[in-house]
């Protein structure tokens, strides 16, 4: 009888151990899995988007900087890069120009050192210039005026612009040009030339693949059609006319 009671007790404990986790899993939760917000108050929905009045006032009021904060540098105080370049065009009638321009004007033939895209070219009337690049936005027959020159001369006289200033840590490079009203230089676009097609083979070390690179450069050809040095009277008349227009 005692053995039967002991076995019945063990059977009851085993059944209790099996049923107990099931009862624990059926616990009541307070988390709502319903996505319907029709019964939720509006302030509770917008609680995460609400901003206090103090925060709104702080955002609208400009904040003053501390006294120890350094003032930002002005554009004039910023140092230019040594690689920067500035073109300066002289527009003053100096005593030397007033004295020597008539002598230069009377010479029979003139030459000019014109600058195109920052490169100097020594030219005279009738010369054919082949640029080392293809000039954009031009077509054969177009007339170009070359208005950047550092030298205008003849057999006996030469009018030179000031020497360029090299760039350093304090300022960039400065290039001086003659006044474009002192001369007239025009060039006609003759056409565009191209070199033969070149094929270059490029290989990498320890690789069997060979890459073929094709290149065919194009060059713009110009012909200097007009080169004239203005007289002193013409130059003074242009300066006087522009002075009157600026006053009006």
TrEMBL record:
SUPFAM superfamilies, A to Z: L21p-like
Any one annotated GO CC term: mitochondrial large ribosomal subunit
Region: Disordered, residue numbers: 30-84
InterPro entries: bL21-like (IPR028909), bL21-like_sf (IPR036164)
Compositionally biased tracts (Basic and acidic residues): 50-59
Highest rank taxon of the organism: Eukaryota
GO molecular function, one term: structural constituent of ribosome
Biased composition (Polar residues): 30-49
Family as reported in the entry's similarity comment: Belongs to the bacterial ribosomal protein bL21 family.
Name of this protein: Large ribosomal subunit protein bL21m
